[in-house]
Amino acid sequence: MHVRALILRAPGINRDRDAALACELAGATPERIHINQLAGGAVRLADYGMLLIPGGFSYGDHLGAGRLLAIDLVHRLGEALHRFVEDGRPVIGICNGFQVLVKAGLLPGCLAEPDCAPAVTLTDNASERFECRWVTLEANPGTRCPFARDLTRPIEVPVAHGEGRIALRDEATLALLEAQGLIALRYTTAIGDDQAISYPANPNGSVGHIAGLCNAQGNVLGLMPHPENAVLPQQHPRWTREEARDEGDGLLLFRNAVRYAAAL
Ligand SMILES: NC(=O)CC[C@H](N)C(=O)O
């Protein structure tokens, strides 16, 4: 089935065109849709095969990055969104979009706790600065997210964020995330570097070097890095100095997600 991808727009979201290009190169038909078009009923989420919440500075990062857009989404579109997720359709939140999914309680989800209190959050980088650099990511082989799991090699993608550090309520949460396969992606050292990982390979100080999480169903993925900005060979910082590539590494993730959505 052909995949229509809804790229969510909202005040302060600024990587929607990049996300649209990535979806298009991956074989989907992207449509950039403002949250008000969905809330007003002019467009229905249910008519799409996948949802992308792009990066940016939604609502100026007020009250914490992603917080206000999360509240807006839950209040105006909560039901449609929950149905979309329950249907198993892919939802990808990138950077600010990841922050939105976490603050909305969609990621990592309930962790099977009786009170379902959020045990995971994203907060200020350990460096206390905005981090804008290229990093290397690897999939957690035990993740429940099929489009992350199918990344069979480390990939190079950029990050650009101030609040990307994953913090957990306690150590038991890390064990739970691991045991339930909710850790999708991790920062790793540069390809060919066998040093132990630390800053800046882990750009924000995330516990367990976590770069991306998924839900228990595996169809909702959030990640801090920007795979949509690593889809063309020329986007790589060393593209003139290294052997020519056919495409950027980030495209793998989009292709996996589009293929998954097409098979539903
Ligand atoms: N590139 C982004 O999406 C940035 C997210 C958010 N505004 C932050 O600084 O953490």
- The number of strands is 11
* Helix and strand run: EHEHEHEHEEHEEHEEEH
- Let me know the average pLDDT: 94
| Ligand identities | glutamine
Low-confidence stretches: none
Spatial extent as radius of gyration: 17 Å
Number of helices: 7
Shape: globular
Q: Strand arrangement, largest sheet?
A: 2-1-3-4-11-10-9-6-7
List the keywords.
alpha/beta; binds glutamine; 264 residues; two-stranded antiparallel ribbon; 11 strands; single chain; 7 helices; nine-stranded mixed beta sheet
In words, what does this structure look like?
The protein is an alpha/beta fold and 264 residues long. The protein has helices at 16-25, 35-39, 67-86, 96-103, 146-149, 171-179, 251-262; strands at residues 4-9, 29-34, 50-53, 91-94, 120-123, 131-139, 155-161, 165-168, 183-188, 210-214, 220-223. The strands form two sheets. It has a nine-stranded mixed β-sheet, with helices on both faces. It has a two-stranded antiparallel ribbon with strand order 5-8. Helix 3 (67-86) packs across helix 4. The longest helix is centred in the N-terminal third of the chain and has 20 residues, at 67-86. 48% of the residues are buried. The mean pLDDT is 94. Residues 55-57, 61, 65, 95-96, 160-164 line the site of glutamine. It catalyses: L-glutamine + H2O = L-glutamate + NH4(+); N(2)-formyl-N(1)-(5-phospho-beta-D-ribosyl)glycinamide + L-glutamine + ATP + H2O = 2-formamido-N(1)-(5-O-phospho-beta-D-ribosyl)acetamidine + L-glutamate + ADP + phosphate + H(+). GO terms for molecular function: phosphoribosylformylglycinamidine synthase activity.
